[in-house]
Amino acid sequence: MWQYAMGWREIFTRILGDFTVEENVTPAWLRNPNTKRLLKLDLFYPDVGVAVRLQGLQGQRKVRKSDQEELEEVQRDELREELCRQHGVRLINVDLAAEETRVVFNELSRALATASRVVAQSDSRSVDKGRLMPNLAQARQTLERVRMQVRRSEDVAQYADAWRDREMAAIATAQAEAKPANAPGGSLFKSGRIIATVYKPGAEVKHDRFGRGTVVAAQPDGNDMAITISFVTAGERRFLVSLVQDKLTLV
């Protein structure tokens, strides 16, 4: 599923690239009142009240989820959507296993229409209409253009390479700006943040517990870097570099 996740990230970036984005975030208001645990958003655009959740990234797990696990996941998804609604955020759930893309683009189109109306009617000085309104108009135009090109899942997968190129360009820029530190695991630090790692998509690795695998994604996550690895026997798993680098080696 990783190629579809990358493809959708590239598509959302092309459409909403003019807006501030927070990746892999757990906002303080997105808390499960029963467990007190924070829920995650894969992408969050606070300026326009749009959030994205990529569903299906655990599709390669070897052990089937129990009925109880399935029920708990459904309940978390419903709660996440309700909390977003209460805070004026339109949550777009992207089913990575879906064959068609129409539902996602329709949801995003409605979200941008709502955001345009809210911004236009706002009297708050904190709302930068001069910036947001043109950017929203451009985003809606780009959406209509992209949706004509991306109708099915195989079209989404074609954008995965562009996302990998974008990630690699960002890492290369960070490497050029920062001075390498004596960091374990081939990590590069700047101002206390991990900004690059040798574990790039396509790298063959071996984990102390899960064995051999291939890195399929690497992206910033707060002050850390997150990498997703598809293991031969353990399926796809996601790690923070700072926590996994002592257990991982390149092969």
Explain this structure to me?
The structure is a single chain. The chain has seven helices and eleven strands. The chain has 251 residues and is α+β, with helices and mostly antiparallel strands. The protein folds into two domains: 2-157, no CATH class; 178-250, Thrombin, subunit H. Helix 2 links the parallel strand 3 (50-55) and strand 4 (90-95). It is globular.
Sequence of strands across the biggest β-sheet: 10-9-8-7-11
Domain count: 2
> Into which percentage range does the β-strand content fall?
15-25%
Secondary structure tally: strands: 11
In helices, the fraction of residues equals: 40-55%
Low-confidence stretches: 179-184
Rg, Cα atoms, Å:
19 Å
Distance, first to last CA: 23 Å
Name the shape in a single word: globular
Classify the secondary structure makeup into a structural class: alpha+beta
Features:
4-stranded mixed sheet, single chain, globular, 5-stranded antiparallel sheet, 251 residues, Thrombin, subunit H, alpha+beta
Structure, briefly:
The protein is globular, with a radius of gyration of 19 Å. Strand 9 (224-231) and strand 10 form a beta hairpin.
Q: Can you lay out the helices and strands and say which pair or pack?
A:
Blueprint: H1 2-16, E1 22-25, E2 41-45, E3 50-55, H2 67-86, E4 90-95, H3 102-121, H4 129-149, H5 153-157, H6 160-177, E5 188-190, E6 193-196, E7 204-207, E8 211-221, E9 224-231, E10 235-240, H7 241-244, E11 248-250
Helix pairs in contact: 1-4, 1-6, 3-4
